[in-house]
Amino acid sequence: MEKTLKELAEIVGGELAGDGSLLVRGVAGIKEAGAGDLTFLANPKYLKELKRTKAAAVLVSPDVPVEGLAAIKIKNPYLAFAKVVGLFAPKRNIPSGVMEGSYVSTGARVGAGVTVYPNAYLEPGAVIGDGSVVYPGVYVGEGSIIGKSCTLYPNVVIREGVRIGDRVTVHAGTVVGADGFGYATEGGKHHKIPQIGGVVIEDDVELGANVTVDRGALGDTIIRRGAKIDNLVMIAHNVVVGEGSIIVAQAGVSGSTELGHHVVLAGQVGLVGHIKIGDGVQVGAQSGVMSDLEAGNAYSGSPAMPHKEWLKMNAVMHKLPEIRKLVGELSRRLEALEKEKGAKPGDTEDA
């Protein structure tokens, strides 16, 4: 496949700078790109690579100077690059229909254009929406509903009573609807609290590999429209993940915590239960969140604090041994001055 640079500029809605008849035959990173490739520059730290790249053309922000290289200038070059990658990515030939070796229970419903691979298992009352793909080893529990154009990759487990919207992608090994972690303890014994709620995943959500989303104890665990969840994330019972939120790898959200819309939790962030995270909050990597966080702010550290305060604190952390030594010295000097001040007139050291 090949496209002219002018065609690509029109597709992404960018401003052409250079030879519009230039043929683009592929896409690549700024370091790896060669002749015929289109690359992109979104992070200023790679600006020096722009002079060394062998790419035929580059996607850049309007304020980035480009010399000796054709370009498409656009406000969000990373997003534009994603669109171009979609054009050049090889299209997979996915067969349609329920394939031999799969098990579809009586009472399960499979929509038009659905693919169910061998070793997939659909319980009674399970529903698979039009155009969805169910890969080998997938289990869909009783009464669970999968929407249209969804993809369930190998060995995904969708337990009973789960509702999934349209255009949802669930990557390999993820479990949706496992029991929430709830026990009542008496006399040193832990008694399991039945988890009878469900899970609701709205449209356009993506769950990475080996994510766990527990079912609610009574009501539902909810992941709102457009949320993106990375690999190895834990979502506990009755959590609400707000619309458009992003949760990065190895983060964990404890039970009944609510995230507002477009919240960002970086890698290995941990949230205690029963707290509320405001809209647009950003939490830095490895932070521990112990209480509610106000909307629109950035936080870091454990316990989490406003990011600017955390930066100030960390700026002096490596100086603490030196500061400790200085404080000790000043303390000794102060003590000597106080002794000297307390001496009577005419007293001498030899008296």
Topology of helices and strands:
Layout lengths: L2 E2 H8 L2 E3 L5 E2 L1 E2 L9 E4 L6 H4 L6 E4 L9 E4 L3 H12 L8 E2 L4 E2 L4 E2 L4 E2 L4 E2 L4 E2 L4 E2 L4 E2 L4 E2 L4 E2 L4 E2 L3 E3 L4 E2 L4 E4 L4 E4 L2 E4 L5 E4 L4 E2 L4 E3 L5 E4 L4 E2 L4 E2 L4 E2 L4 E2 L4 E2 L4 E2 L4 E2 L4 E2 L4 E2 L4 E2 L4 E2 L8 E3 L4 E2 H11 L2 H23 L9
Parallel strand pairs: 4-5, 5-6, 6-7, 8-11, 9-12, 10-13, 11-14, 12-15, 13-16, 14-17, 15-18, 16-19, 17-20, 18-21, 19-24, 20-25, 21-26, 24-27, 25-28, 26-29, 27-30, 28-31, 29-32, 31-34, 32-35, 33-36, 34-37, 35-38, 37-39
Antiparallel strand pairs: 1-3, 2-7, 22-23, 39-40
Brief digest:
By secondary structure, the protein is of the alpha/beta class. 17% of the residues lie in helices and 28% in strands.
What does this protein structure show overall?
The chain is an alpha/beta fold. The model has no long low-confidence stretch (mean pLDDT about 95).
Number of strand elements = 40
The shape, in one word, is flat
Strand order of the largest sheet: 8-11-14-17-20-25-28-31-34-37-39-40
Determine the strand fraction and express it as a percent band: 25-35%
- Indicate the structural class: alpha/beta
- Please name the CATH architecture of the largest domain: 3 Solenoid
CATH superfamily of the largest domain: Hexapeptide repeat proteins
- CATH topology name of the largest domain: UDP N-Acetylglucosamine Acyltransferase, domain 1
Helix percentage:
10-25%
Which residue ranges are poorly predicted, with pLDDT under 50 across at least 5 consecutive positions?
A: none
CATH C-level category of the largest domain = Mainly Beta
| Radius of gyration, whole Å | 29 Å
Question: How is the main sheet built?
Answer: 12 strands, mixed
Instruction: Please give the domain count.
Output: 2
Could you report the average pLDDT, rounded to the nearest whole number?
94
Can you count the helices?
5
